[in-house]
Design brief:
Chain lengths: 722, 52
């Protein structure tokens, strides 16, 4: 909801942040700023405003930060200036969570940099030591010196770079669980300790380089995963920011005040212009309009509201300006009830155990048992405690989980990059894993299988040309559809729009009307999905509209069925409309008239039956089902709440994105499993070698980087394949 | 052999300078807005123009 067409008195002060240093600042999302020109223009014009001290646009995040000179600022002035320049802007709250997330990313990058430094420089001292292993001349004194150098450089780097792992391991130990970071931390600390003691005792094996490069490789995997999450959550945060924007409240002296939704109280008078959504549940005080409830209920036909009529939050106001009195707070509105269902579903989803964690659950005990057995067995068989301990540490090092740590993130980042190119946004790596397990697909009808907006179904060229000039002058969706069918052309003169009725105007000097049956005096009510047109006193022409199927809906359903998936349609629309669509796309299982709760209940029922459900939906009535389903996709045209509840968001007209996403997810899972398989095979060879004492620092370094490289290259195949 | 005692710390020093430079970049917000920074070089400040 952009605030740009607002009246000049619009009050945005609720969005001004008052900082600790006494100055005020304002954060705005400017989605249309794209180029250097936009940036220069925006910053120059905003800076020219009185009492603005600084203005800086972040072109990457499309965010404008305005610092005011004083303790308060004219936020509306800034927004209006932006509107004048042609950039709709929405105030938003940067939020604490986001800042924390960025800090985490920065810490990871820095740890990566330190680990990189450590790897390069310890290697510098390792090369002479390795040379010594192969019979080159290297006296014990020089070797010990090199080991000292290597330890002095490597150990601090390893301790710093390992911090993210140590912290996570500590947290998980406190919660009495062992995640992947526990063996990593134990391995690294033990390795460092043994290497120091060997250096002091003048031994041969020091694994400082191995400890640092292990962390370096693992940090790459960690950072890739962070990138994936950061990109998705920034997209989600933008959506949330847009949604949280505001309601226009009419104050006591008829001043318009933009208020954050959660500050709107029952009894407030609200102004809702055509094209805006109803912010909270309310009753009509004045004005006549039609509401599009399709995102709330799935019904395609617009509902007419008049004085005293109830409006539900989330409905789209189509034709006339409405004055409402709020009857509920935002938290108690119809939308919020759905939001709570979504939250419940999201919690259930967070209990999903990820592939890497499943692998870790097997890997961790096995490797630790083997290492412990090597130590005890080695000692028992007469190796001596020092040699036995070195071999146990060698087992821990060569069976390092780098391959495991990289196996999944590398695959998922390439898979999501590939989907991103096809217009599908993946919100998390776990989403891809869940998507690959799906065996049942549930579609919503309106806006998913169909385009979600009316199309003319009886285009008679002559009639179309006659009515088009009037249709072009109207904002009603049916008139828009008519204008779209007719193409570019002349506009009617002297147009007046009768809210909830139709439009009237002059075409070539003749008075004409376009609108509902009653508006033109046609007897018999008429349907919500038709428009009538007539010149004054002439024959009346009827235009009929229907929500058209997406062009590739039938093909997509067929190809999904060919993959062995079962398909079902759940819609809130009336049974006739749903049946027609179901027959057109050849789906036998369908239900009409579902409430949001019905949909969520059906998903639960399927889940209890052991099915892994993919829900594809766009409406607010789907949001709960989207959150509860094993995996969920929403089109980019969906309401923000649904996009937030979904795991993947696809843009564009093509429903085929669903098939593409399923295929990529399946191939990503295959790659990940291949990587696990490879890691297992590698460990089967490396662990016995380490137990037998065949591993020295050189072999460990080669094996570790080699296995990581193979896993990464295999992951890249996901991105390369067409 | 003595040369190692000089060269090794020297090369470590060079490496540390690089890490320090990177740390400074990160801290100074050089990576906050890559798209904006790339675009900013194209923006002409009116006061930068040579007096005609």
């Amino acid at each position: 909801m952009a605030l740009t067409d607002a009246a000049p008195r619009l009050d945005l002060d609720a969005f001004v942040n008052h900082r600790e240093d006494g100055h005020a600042s304002l954060d705005l999302l400017v989605p249309d700023a794209r180029c250097a020109g936009c940036m220069a223009k925006i910053e120059r014009e905003i800076l020219a405003l009185p009492d603005v001290a600084a203005a800086r646009l972040n072109l990457t995040q499309k965010r404008l930060t305005v610092d005011f000179a004083g303790a308060g600022g004219d936020a509306a002035g800034v927004v209006n200036t932006l509107a004048r320049l042609g950039y709709p802007a929405t105030p938003f709250d940067p939020g604490q969570a986001r800042a924390a997330h960025d800090q985490e990313g920065r810490r990871l990058v820095l740890a990566l940099a330190v680990a990189g430094f450590g790897v390069l420089n310890t290697m510098m001292f390792s090369v002479p030591i390795w040379a010594g292993l192969f019979g080159q001349e290297l006296g014990p004194a020089t070797r010990t010196l090199m080991m000292w150098f290597s330890g002095i450089v490597g150990a601090p780097c390893a301790l710093y770079a390992g911090l993210p792992f140590f912290r996570s391991a500590w947290r998980s130990l406190k919660a009495k669980r062992a995640n992947m970071d526990v063996p990593i931390s134990i391995g690294v600390l033990l390795t460092l300790g043994i290497s120091f003691s060997e250096t002091i005792l003048g031994g041969r094996d020091a694994y400082f380089d191995a400890a640092v490069s292990l962390l370096f490789l693992l940090l790459i995997g960690r950072w890739l995963e962070h990138r994936l999450r950061a990109r998705a959550s920034s997209a989600a945060a933008d959506l949330l920011a847009l949604q949280a924007a505001s309601a226009t409240v009419i104050g006591d002296d008829d001043a318009l005040i933009a208020k954050p939704l959660n500050e709107v109280l029952p009894g407030d008078r609200l102004l809702v212009r055509p094209g805006e959504r109803i912010p909270v549940d309310g009753r009509v005080l004045s004005g006549v309009s039609e509401l599009d409830n399709s995102l709330l209920t799935g019904e395609t036909a617009p509902a007419r509201v008049v004085l005293g009529g109830a409006c539900r939050a989330g409905a789209l106001n189509l034709s006339g300006t409405l004055h409402l009195v709020a009857t509920a707070r935002s938290e108690d509105s119809a939308v919020a009830a759905i939001a709570r269902l979504v939250e419940a579903g999201a919690q259930a989803k967070s209990r999903y155990v990820r592939l890497a964690d499943k692998a870790a659950a097997i890997y961790v005990p096995v490797v630790h048992t083997v290492a412990l057995a090597t130590f005890i067995g080695g000692w028992g068989l007469g190796l001596g405690p020092r040699e036995a301990l070195i071999r146990a540490v060698a087992v821990l090092i060569v069976t390092c989980p780098c391959a495991l740590g990289l196996a999944v993130p590398a695959v998922q980042i390439t898979a999501s990059a590939r989907l991103f190119r096809r217009g599908v946004l993946v919100k998390s790596g776990a989403a891809l894993e869940r998507l690959a397990e799906v065996d049942h697909v549930v579609f919503d009808k309106t806006g998913v299988l169909t385009e979600g907006r009316p199309r003319l179904i009886n285009p008679a060229p002559q009639a179309l040309a006659m009515a088009a000039p009037l249709a072009r002058a109207s904002r009603h969706p049916l008139a828009r559809a008519l204008a779209e069918a007719a193409g570019m052309g002349p506009l009617a003169a002297d147009v007046t729009e009768h809210a909830g009725q139709g439009v009237e105007g002059l075409i070539d000097g003749r008075r004409a009307r376009l609108g509902r049956a009653k508006f033109l005096g046609v007897a018999g009510g008429g349907s919500e999905t038709e428009l009538w047109f007539a010149f004054d006193g002439d024959t009346k022409i009827r235009f009929r509209f229907a929500d058209r199927l997406r062009t590739d809906a039938a093909v997509t359903i067929r190809s999904l069925a060919a993959r062995g998936l079962t398909i079902e349609i759940l819609s809130g629309d009336v049974s006739g409309a749903v049946q027609a669509v179901a027959e057109a796309v050849q789906v036998e299982t369908w239900r009409a008239g579902c409430t949001p709760e019905d949909k969520a209940a059906r998903i639960d029922e399927l889940a209890r039956a052991g099915r892994k459900v993919l829900m594809v939906g766009d409406g607010l009535n789907d949001a709960a089902a989207l959150a509860k389903a094993h995996a969920a996709m929403a089109p980019g045209t969906a309401l923000e709440a649904s996009q937030n509840a979904a795991d993947l968001v696809f843009s564009g007209e093509q429903l085929g994105s669903v098939t593409v996403a399923l295929d990529v997810a399946a191939s990503a899972r295959k790659r990940a499993l291949e990587n696990f398989g490879f890691a297992a095979l590698y460990n089967l060879v490396a662990a016995p070698a380490a137990i037998l004492g065949l591993v020295n620092p050189f072999v460990a370094a080669i094996a570790m980087s080699g296995s990581s490289l193979i896993v990464t290259l295999n992951a890249l195949r996901t991105g390369l394949r067409r | 052999m003595n040369i190692v005692m000089f060269l090794a710390p020297f090369s470590l020093g060079l490496g540390l300078i690089a890490v320090g430079a990177f740390w400074w970049c990160l801290k100074a917000g050089q990576y906050e807005d890559p798209a904006g920074d790339a675009a900013r070089i194209l923006v002409e400040d009116p006061e930068d123009r040579p007096a005609a």
